[in-house]
């Protein structure tokens, strides 16, 4: 179902794709843990006959020095073709200088 992640963090009612092994997280600083929790490049793959797909995600944002917002893009591919792109809004913010 998930593709492109290193590991999966399991929590009640959710799973989180990780770019670092979950067992190694305590050995990393807060910023590296945060970067490892960003699901950039991970894919959710499935087959369905449905004509509607709903994705609920918790987004993490990087605080930029100019207070600009870096929104996450969520791309929908059907049979290998890009059919839609949605942009995330809001979410948890991380300032690497504060970590």
TrEMBL record:
<protein>
    <submittedName>
        <fullName>Uncharacterized protein</fullName>
    </submittedName>
</protein>
